């Protein structure tokens, strides 16, 4: 495995499922804060371009969710550069508008381009118990999944308008010659999660959209706390382990991602390579 990528590579810090809690033992909250600050310090030392937080930043405890968000977001703001966030199911213990404002998110789903890559951030809670459907089709989809308890009401789906937006984003990337990294809190493949955690309700529909574009190289997710990996139609689907379960999987608690034109390398908190994934799609 290569120890470094070429000099034109892009690097960012990554973490998921922090589940920051202020209701547990104060010493545990202090330790969590210290470890998060350690990750941020490591990111600074590695000259990352930005940070990515993939959702479930807070535990979402009753009567404590606002304080959880205040403390967790204040820690991440210790990073002097840009931080990007993804909506997770636990995050919506707070009203969506308040969450977006606190995290400085431009919208529940959005994209940005940097160094030849386009990052497309999906809102997997677009259709969910926490959001009013925007169209009759979305209402029908929501009712369909809520009638199936095995799909879990803490999961969600991508709505009609977001699907139209996603297709347009991929068309833009194709015209610009960009490589796409899709980001979603929920896993998109059944083989990368388990029945307890679940996955994006309309995962197959979204995967079909992603694989239809030659620009998509990888998809990064969280939610399934133990992490997983699969490849489908030469797209890498990486589900990163949860920070909150870091004592159970010390091989990765947080880390960095490096991208260049040919591959993606993910390193853990000890700067050890855990994934070295070549891009095979033309």
Structure commentary:
- By secondary structure, the protein is of the alpha/beta class.
- The protein has a single domain, classed as Metallo-dependent phosphatases (Purple Acid Phosphatase, chain A, domain 2).
- 27% of the residues lie in helices and 22% in strands.
- It has six helices and twelve strands.
- The chain has helices spanning 26-45, 65-76, 96-103, 136-146, 160-176, 203-211, and strands at residues 10-15, 50-53, 83-85, 110-114, 117-121, 179-184, 216-221, 228-232, 235-239, 255-259, 263-267, 273-278.
- The strands form two sheets. A six-stranded mixed β-sheet has the order 3-2-1-10-11-12, covered by helices on one side.
- α1 links the parallel β1 and β2.
- It is globular and about 50 Å long.
- The model is unreliable at 1-7 (pLDDT under 50).
CATH topology: Purple Acid Phosphatase, chain A, domain 2
Poorly predicted regions are 1-7
Distance linking N and C termini: 22 Å
Helix percentage: 25-40%
Instruction: Calculate Rg over CA atoms.
Output: 18 Å
> What count of domains describes the coordinates?
1
Query: What is the chain-wise order of helices and strands?
Result: EHEHEHEEHHEHEEEEEE
Give the number of helices. Answer: 6
Q: CATH top level?
A: Alpha Beta
- By CATH, the superfamily comes out as Metallo-dependent phosphatases
The number of distinct β-strands equals 12
CATH architecture assignment name? 4-Layer Sandwich
Percent strand: 15-25%
How is the largest sheet built, in terms of strand order? 3-2-1-10-11-12
The shape, in one word, is globular
Mean pLDDT: 94
- Main sheet makeup: 6 strands, mixed
Label the structural class.
alpha/beta
